[in-house]
Design goal:
The chain is an alpha+beta fold. It is 28% helix and 26% strand. Among the domains are: 1-30, no CATH class; 74-224, 2-Layer Sandwich (Nucleotidyltransferase, domain 5). The protein has helices at residues 16-25, 35-53, 116-119, 123-140, 185-196, 212-223, 281-288; strands at 4-5, 32-33, 66-67, 80-87, 91-100, 103-113, 147-154, 158-162, 165-168, 203-210, 229-233, 237-244, 259-263. The strands form 4 sheets. Strands 6-5-4-7-10 form a 5-stranded mixed β-sheet. Strands 3-13-12-11 form a 4-stranded antiparallel β-sheet. A two-stranded antiparallel ribbon has the order 1-2.
Length: 297
């Protein structure tokens, strides 16, 4: 792998002294990631991956390496009508998708803005808001199915205890509803749906929760079966990939599955100081002013 060199920007100021001060001040942003630094970073990341998959690691990994309980990718035979929710930022999406012979034959997507009030409110209020959006969706598009399964894409760090159980580890980005941390967000959503849809004949149930990288991996495989990694680079960054079950040492359950999708949750990578050699003063200043200080995210 060749080294990445970002050339210094061209700066022309009439005052040469001022120009030099600006260049000196921004010198840490003109990065030269040399082969030695890249190799060191790769070794640290790989070590953290192994620690995260271990049963009794010598130290806690900064990568959660969560088993998503998703054992396989699309095979081209998908059928049925499903709803889905996507929560990961200030925009919340509700979808209805119909599959036939492994292809999408119909799709409805509605986007809802999540204002600051609902990003910092008690958990019940957040889930009630999400359920209200679902209620609006089924009324607007006159959905009258008696029973609908709905997948939940929840783009925040969580512990997966089962395919339909996601325990929030911590909030990231612009969310902070403290009383949700440590609780099952699927239960919170299902309870809110029961409250908001009790007068409706339609019954909506959430049988599965994933994060956006897992969803990206699944969608990638839906388009190209060679896909093996799901990568998110946006407000936050993260990746999921396919791992052999025998390499997931911390998994104690019985399964006939040969593989599982692993959600690395790399947003905390380096929070223990192992990547400090790559950070600049600007990284530190930015971190200090975020909603979640002392975190890589």
């Amino acid at each position: 792998m060749s080294s990445l060199i970002i050339e210094p920007p061209v700066l022309n100021l009439s005052d040469s002294v001022r120009q030099q001060k600006v260049l000196d001040r921004t010198s840490t942003l003109r990065i030269m990631l040399d082969p030695e630094s890249k190799k060191r970073l790769q070794e640290i990341f790989y070590d953290e991956m192994e620690l995260g998959l271990s049963d009794n690691p010598r130290k806690k990994s900064t990568l959660m390496m969560e088993n998503t309980f998703v054992p396989e990718l699309p095979n081209g035979k998908e059928e049925g009508k499903y709803m889905a929710l996507d929560l990961g930022g200030t925009n919340f999406r509700v979808l209805m998708v119909i599959y036939k012979d492994g292809k999408v034959v119909d799709e409805i997507v509605q986007q809802y803005a999540v204002d600051e009030k609902h990003r910092f409110c008690p958990g019940d209020e957040l889930f009630d808001f999400l359920a209200d959006c679902v209620k609006d969706f089924i009324e607007k598009y006159k959905i009258d199915d008696k029973y609908i399964q709905m997948g939940f894409c929840f783009s925040f760090p969580m512990y997966h205890e089962a395919l339909d159980v996601g325990i929030l580890y911590r909030w990231t980005k612009s969310f902070n509803c403290p009383d949700v941390v440590g609780k099952d967000v699927v239960k919170g959503l299902n309870d809110a749906l029961d409250r908001k849809l009790k007068d409706k004949e339609v019954k909506i149930y959430v049988p599965a929760i994933i994060n956006d990288t897992t969803g990206t991996l699944i969608q990638g495989a839906f388009l190209d079966q060679r896909t093996a990694i799901g990568l998110i680079l946006g407000t936050g960054g993260n990746a999921s990939y396919i791992e052999k079950i025998e390499n997931i040492k911390k998994f104690k359950g019985e399964t006939k599955d040969k593989y599982e999708i692993i959600n690395t949750e790399w947003g905390s990578f380096g929070d223990d100081g192992t990547t400090k050699f790559l950070k600049t003063e600007w990284d530190t200043r930015t971190d200090e002013q975020t909603h979640h200080p002392n975190s890589f995210t």
